[in-house]
Design a protein that fits this description.
5 helices, 178 residues, globular, alpha+beta, 8 strands
Length: 178
Amino acid sequence: MNAMTKRIAIAFFLLCMFNNAFAQNVTIEQVLSLRTKPLSYIDEFLTGKNWELIEANEPSDEKIGALSFAYKKSSIDDTAESFINFYYTNYSVSNNMLSFQVITPSKYNSYLTKIKALGYKLQNSFVDKGELIKVYQKNGITIKINTSTQKDDEDSSTQTTYVFNILTNSMYNIIYNQ
């Protein structure tokens, strides 16, 4: 292998490594930290990483507010590679909730591996309404993972979706009557 071919091979390898790291776009640590950040920080952080704000709803006495972001959103329809939804009230950031959705098994496995490495412990797993639910907890934080499938009527293919819900243990108990 001549020197030029070797340089091209090294450059290609580094490019593949960069693309693989960039494809993740946000780490699980970054997602976990967003839960207690102000709205302006969340918007600037995600749009700085090429996420697109797709919906914003203000909170009221009757309902919580929400910001929704999409990553690599299609210009044709509302599909995207990933979604992040941030739920908040005007009263306390400690009860804010966040959910993010991925559609590739490799991203799901990467996030799940990191959640376990961060010390989150599996508390429960069950099937509810056709979804596999796994509940991990650590230090007052719950990560509830919903895995669901949806069949496409046009080509009979099945799409698996992974949703990570991040909230306090107390909010988890209130919402899910545990």
